[in-house]
Amino acid sequence: MELLVVLVILGLAASLVLPRFATASSQAALKAGVRDVITAIGYARNQAVSEGRSYRLEIDPSSGESRITHFDPEEDPEEPYVADVGILGEKLTLPSGVSFSRVAVGEEAGGVEASGSPASSSRSGETSIQFRPDGTTDQAVIVVTNDDGAELTITLDQFTARVRVLEPEEAEELRSELGLK
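Given the sequence above, the corresponding structure tokens read:
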């Protein structure tokens, strides 16, 4: 009888504790995804400045994948941006349960039109953030979400290339100001 009581108490305790572990795991995946995006941004910017050519971070919100490309018109004049297979690999994938819920670039993200950049177009469904040899970039707002609905917003300043992860209240204010959902 005592064993049965102990098992019931352990079962109740487990039912209270296990959902918290799942939430903590989901939050950890969200933070890891944001770190991955920030790492890719830093890499693309550093490569653009050190190599003296434009780089892009191409994000496909539907698949949760992104890739880094660099400007090389000699490779293929029709598609002058080619995949960069540097230290980050050819394709970057967000952790399981994490996705891009919104990616806004340029004027849509509150930036101004950039000039003097190589012409670019992304593959269908992708959004590109361009990094220039002078250290400037496209203004960008990237919202990363997990399966629990928690989200983190990354901003990228076009002039300084400063990356920030916004607090929820600040992110909501910015998205409202820009008309982003």
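The domain at 2-178 is CATH 3.55.40.10 (minor pseudopilin epsh fold). Try to locate this feature in the token string yourself.
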